[in-house]
Amino acid sequence: MTNRAEILRRLAMAIGFRYPLRWADERTTLGDYEGRDLTIEVFNIPSARQREFFRELRQHRRELQEILGRPVTFVFHTPQVTKQYYSHLFAEVHGAEITGALTIELEPGGVGERPEIQGQLRVAMDLAA
Amino acid sequence: MTTLILGTNRFEDCEHILALRGTPFLSAAIRGGQPVVSLTLEGGPTGQPIRVRENRVMEGPLTADSTREGRVAFRMGESTILSAHVQNQNGLCVEVDFRALGLNIYTDGSALHVGGATLSGNVVRGTRIAINVG
To answer: Which of B119, B123, B125, B128 to mutate to test the interface with A (most CBs of A within 10 A)?
Structure first.
């Protein structure tokens, strides 16, 4: 696990993409607190599932702490809160026409990044976004 | 050429519809008027490999139902994870819900949902992998 994107990817795979993940930044958090730089936000997760989430990631959290030297903080957002306050973060692709050897690239969590269309259409999508 | 409809998205002449980190995961076509589906998940989140090759379950806890003409479905326990039916000579309508496999990928009447992303009304033509996740 060498970089932050790879860490997210591995965690997302471990939970089967069930809950979108992203590193917290100024777009979603205000102020400062210890561990802000190592905070991962978990979206669309019902309160009743948060304990299970920690159970599933137990081994990964240990590994992360060893690599990073500090524990990762997780911030949970329920489906209701996600929809109300964070829907602007989620990737959406509607009505695109993609022809040729192009692939729609999606981040595992589907948040934090716009969907990426490889090749020329990527430019068109970025401009339209 | 096969046209696939998946959550209001149209895929024309695409070798694979979905891939996970570059590894093809789902492909579907029409052959002899019958849907032909392949599905490969190596050590997915549930830890169990799934392998369906041309409608035959080679590995994993899936059961196939291809008794109806022009339609095929795969179930895991009570959950239907994939169903495909031929709409016309070259059109195949595919519905998926891979949440039982631990993957948050599913279709509903309006879109294909992948993780937190929503895709609807898109047309993808002539590519090897239409959507890659991760």
So the answer is: B119
Size of interface A-B (CB pairs under 8 A): 114
SS3 B56: strand
- Say if the ipTM goes beyond 0.85: no
The fold of the A4-88 domain, in CATH, is GMP Synthetase; Chain A, domain 3 (3.30.300)
pLDDT for A23-78, tens place per residue?
A: 888 878 777 788 888 999 999 899 999 999 998 888 888 888 888 889 999 999 99
DSSP B115: T
Nearest CB neighbour to B117, from listed A16, A102, A110: A110
Question: Nearest CA to CA, how far is A35 from chain B (Å)?
Answer: 25
pTM of this structure: 0.76
For tokens 């210890």, the residue is A34
Which chain A residues have a beta carbon less than 8 Å from that of B119? 92-94, 104, 115
Domains of chain A, by residue range, sit at 4-88, 94-128
One-letter amino acid identity for B64? A
Rg (CA), chain A: 16
Q: Which residues 42-61 in chain A show a CB within 8 A of chain B?
A: 43-44
Question: Which amino acid does the sequence have at A13?
Answer: M
